[in-house]
Design goal:
This is Aryl-alcohol oxidase-like protein. Belongs to the GMC oxidoreductase family. InterPro entries: FAD/NAD-bd_sf, GMC_OxRdtase, GMC_OxRdtase_N, GMC_OxRtase_C. It contains 15 helices and 26 strands. It has 596 residues and is α/β, with parallel strands linked by helices. Helix 2 links the parallel strand 2 and strand 3. The chain is globular and about 75 Å long. The strands form 7 sheets. Strands 1, 2, 3, 11, 12, 13, 14 and 26 form an 8-stranded mixed sheet that branches. Strands 8, 18, 19, 20, 21, 24 and 25 form a 7-stranded antiparallel sheet that branches.
């Protein structure tokens, strides 16, 4: 190779966005924008802002690069969820949950580029249009309505064929999909289980309506799951947004392995927060970086309120009790935590299911080898869950007498997801042989609200996380109803010759009391925390951010863009709604600073 060409190749990475692994490596301490968190929202905002070549953007990520030794757990669709509990997970734990028989449960969040979009189950479901209309009503800003968000929805996601180019006609609506960098697809490998689900819908269309596209704004019915998978690989926020920006632009830098310990207040009143303090461990040297325009806080529903409170922004009495000077008294920081639960039930199958494949190490290894070779085969697509259903309680249900917590009549109270193998609940023993199928019941519209509080003044000590699961009669009552509704669904004639006996623990669920006991024993988080920095109207004293996502309480220089701003648990899947919020947030920031 000619020396001149080698010289240019060596220089090329430095001519584009740079990736640093320690604060002292950066050559500048000032940027136009500092994005805290390279998760779902942070990747979008950083990418969109860096589209303008006149601004300089710094992204600070506490976690690791997404090409680490755990990269296969991120990239291989078949291994979705296997990164939980590893080095790419924050590995949080909740407090002992009274509603879960005193159990403390793991609380996964992504500790890696892409955040939770790199470790989640990849389901892309925007939810009903009513979710966004409720967001618009709660914020007083019609810009957050479904209709007014359409251009941002189309900017985000693009539907593609599964790896084997199987025809998916009639399984999704092309009109509901756009031209964005995030790729989504339906399954490449429908199972007999899925055919039975679809047959049940066909036999009972009034009771179980088929929804051709659950991303269309219609939030009820049964349909095919759309997953963030394209070309046989997970399409995460980092793959879709951040890597392309870093690979093609000179005005964006990424700092990894570095935690923001607090926002630094400046100005006469101490209410401007355009500088961040960072460190790589509790005892490490601290560094400071300054945004000349804004700090965008995208650390998620756990990290964002923790950073705010460590900065003196939050409930005054709680902060002062820890020796933190109160800068902005915002009692709702860390309050109102909402999350959803998931509960698995299992049945024997009279036909071969994915259980046979999963119990054969040679077959699994061959599938992984095929993926490594050419990104094809069963490992290149979503396989465990292909069909899903969203349902409501009956209109005359006593559980609705005190009001309906869902966003509207088109929004679900609970969800069924159908899995072609045995899905154990956490710590539940699973059979080693046989063919099995499972159905997961998710509580979509919970009324329980918990909290997130600081454990100490250290950013390196996990906060106190209390989702307060099953602390209302509505929540546990809805789960009991959902389990009975699931059994009724499986009693349809379409399941004859397919379903065998239920797993013994499921066979014992013959009374409401037994179902409730089962739920409290086995339910866990579906990993959808929201509302810890919720949005509210400009004139409202409650809330944390205003309709434009800027901090309330007289604070300046900080905007929050992540799932913490949702005022209610969302009826869709948060990753999809966060992408859309982040797209509009980036546009609002550009408008504020007259950037094209």
């Amino acid at each position: 190779m000619p020396l001149c060409l080698l010289f240019l190749l060596l220089l090329a990475p430095h001519c584009l966005g740079s990736v640093f692994t320690a604060p002292e490596q950066l050559t500048s301490t000032k940027y136009d924008f500092i994005v805290v968190g390279a998760g779902t929202a942070g990747c979008v905002v950083a990418s969109r802002l860096s589209e303008n070549p006149t601004v300089k953007v710094l992204v600070i990520e506490a976690g690791v690069a997404d090409n680490t030794t755990e990269a296969d757990l991120i990239n291989i669709p078949f291994l979705a969820g296997q990164g939980i509990g590893t080095t790419i997970d924050w590995n949080y734990t909740t407090t002992n949950q009274a509603g879960l028989n005193g159990r403390a449960i793991p609380y996964p969040r992504g500790f890696v580029m892409g955040g939770s979009s790199s470790i989640n189950s990849m389901i892309y479901f925007r939810g009903p249009s009513e979710d966004f209309d409720r967001l618009a009503a709660a914020s007083g800003d019609p810009g957050w309505s479904w209709e007014n968000l359409q251009r941002f929805i189309f900017m985000n996601e693009r539907h593609v064929a599964p790896w084997n180019n199987r025809s998916n006609a009639g399984e999704y609506d092309p009109r509901a999909h756009g031209h964005g960098p995030l790729l989504s697809s339906v399954t490449a490998d429908p199972f007999e289980l899925d055919r039975r689900v679809i047959q049940t819908l066909s036999d009972h269309p009034e009771k179980y309506p088929f929804n051709m596209d659950l991303n269309s704004g219609n939030g009820l019915g049964f349909g095919w799951i759309q997953s963030t998978v394209g070309n046989g690989v997970r399409s995460s926020a980092s793959r879709a947004y951040l890597h392309p920006a870093l690979d093609s632009r000179t005005n964006i830098d990424l700092l990894l392995h570095t935690q923001v310990t607090r926002l630094i207040s400046t100005g006469a009143a101490g209410s401007t927060f355009t500088s961040v303090e960072v460190a790589q461990s509790a005892g490490a040297t601290k560094f400071e970086f300054t945004a000349t325009k804004e700090v965008i806080l995208s650390a998620g529903s756990i990290g964002t309120p923790q950073i705010l409170m460590l900065s003196g922004i939050g409930p005054k009495n709680e902060l002062e009790a820890l020796g933190i000077i109160s800068r902005i008294d915002l009692p709702d920081v860390g309050a109102n935590l909402q999350d959803q639960t998931i509960l698995s039930l299992q049945w024997e199958a009279k036909v071969e299911t994915l259980s046979s494949f999963l119990s054969d190490p040679a077959a699994v290894n061959a599938a992984l080898a095929q993926w490594t070779e050419n990104k094809t085969g069963i490992a290149a697509g979503t396989s465990l869950v292909n069909t899903i259903g969203f349902l409501r309680l009956p209109e005359d249900s006593p559980l609705l007498k005190s009001g309906d917590p869902a966003a509207g009549s088109n929004s679900a109270h609970f969800e069924f997801a159908f899995l072609n193998t045995f899905l154990p609940n956490a710590d539940q023993p699973a059979p080693l042989t046989g063919n099995w199928v499972s159905a997961a019941v998710t509580l979509q519209s919970p009324t329980s609200r918990g909290s997130l509080k600081l454990r100490s003044r250290s950013a390196f000590e996990h906060p106190i996380i209390d989702p307060a699961f099953y602390t209302t009669s509505f929540d546990i009552g809805t789960v009991v109803h959902a389990v009975k509704a699931l059994r009724e669904f499986f009693s349809a004639s379409a399941w004859d010759g397919f379903l065998g006996s239920p797993f013994p623990a499921v066979a014992a669920l013959n009374t409401d009391e037994a179902i409730e006991a089962y739920a409290r024993t086995w339910a866990t988080t579906v990993k959808h925390p929201v509302s810890t920095a919720k949005i509210s109207k400009i004139a409202d004293k409650a809330g944390v951010v205003s309709p434009n996502l800027l901090l309330k309480g007289g604070a300046n220089g900080v905007r929050v863009v992540d799932a913490s701003i949702f005022p209610f648990a969302v009826a869709g899947y948060p990753q999809a709604e966060v992408y859309i919020v982040a797209e509009r947030a980036a546009a609002l920031i550009k408008e504020t600073w007259s950037l094209k």
